[in-house]
């Protein structure tokens, strides 16, 4: 039985398909040769056969990891608050699945929102370069809209992967319009900017919108984008991902109904800010449309970064460096060593320089906290951010010993930075650890075994073992599925 939302959606979609040629002639003249039109053409014309084996494999790893961090994220306080808000404040249609909730469904936009919040609630989701969290903004929207489609029009697993990759590709291409985007952000949180655009693009692809509608979807999404970095390290940061997913989906749905927006939203137009409003420097480039020779996705040439523990990406460098020192400290034997001073050398980035974090969200964005946790325990884990772990007297004592320096040769750039920790012991001995590329970085990606281990640990907090293993199998064969409901049914 179709819901009111599905009934309202189906005729508009079906009508567009039945009368597509007439609509194009009467309502959608050929767009100008602009940056924006090149993006609309790409989204509309890209086909599944353009996905190489490398892109398929890497994107399936992203899907698996994103589902896992979304499932464990569904246990957090911020997810519970977002879900309660949606259930109490909106009249919701029970259509789309919610991570980790067997009997809970929401409207597609609200499901995309809460699942996006879950994905980023522990800062455990994937990261790319230039810096953003690409999967969390796209996958919840793609899953929600797949739930929304009528039973006889469900996308295949390959359709879903194509839409997902379109959303990732658009984010990567847009970030290359600006040198500013290559560095650790200071003004806008990147997923709230390019993530919303990626979500809109992915949903537009899944809805089979035409070139003009895809352009309008991007332009509508641009009006719904942007969140300030001041809310990093707070409970509001996960809302950025949730909103990117939800608002991108809404932009695509509005475009599918005929809502129009700027046809030059991505172009550099003198005297008028479009998407350029988000960047201090902005030089847009055309996006080549796929041809008989295919299309080289950015994911083909640059892998994704996957986190081993739930914290800001910058923390992984200092944690690895401190873990190396922990191994040296073990050689002294228990009770035989006393630390006098801890020096951390990191890039200069104010919002992740937090000497005494007061909440788990601040701790996830603290060079000092993650360094001291690794020195104390030899690792940083999910449990490191619990109230008990954060208030340990020995951890607080170490935090009081920390100094931070910002060497000129250590840029605030995830592709070039390093982390260095120097521990001076009572007696004068000095121990040093340095990390240039942590395990999980796109230059040193997690093995499939490590990625599955992370997924089992995360998903197993919410799902029984048989469902966890079932999800691994389904995602591994996703491009072979004729109907994505096989995947959707495993998420609750």
Automatic annotation (TrEMBL):
GO biological process per UniProt: defense response
GO MF term list: aconitate decarboxylase activity
Residues annotated as domain MmgE/PrpD N-terminal: 41-275
GO CC terms in record: mitochondrion
Domain MmgE/PrpD C-terminal: 309-479
Family matches, as InterPro entries: MmgE/PrpD_sf (IPR036148), MmgE/PrpD_sf_1 (IPR042183), MmgE/PrpD_sf_2 (IPR042188), MmgE_PrpD (IPR005656), MmgE_PrpD_C (IPR045337), MmgE_PrpD_N (IPR045336)
Homology family: Belongs to the PrpD family.
Protein name, as recorded: Cis-aconitate decarboxylase
Species in which this protein is naturally found: Takifugu flavidus (sansaifugu)
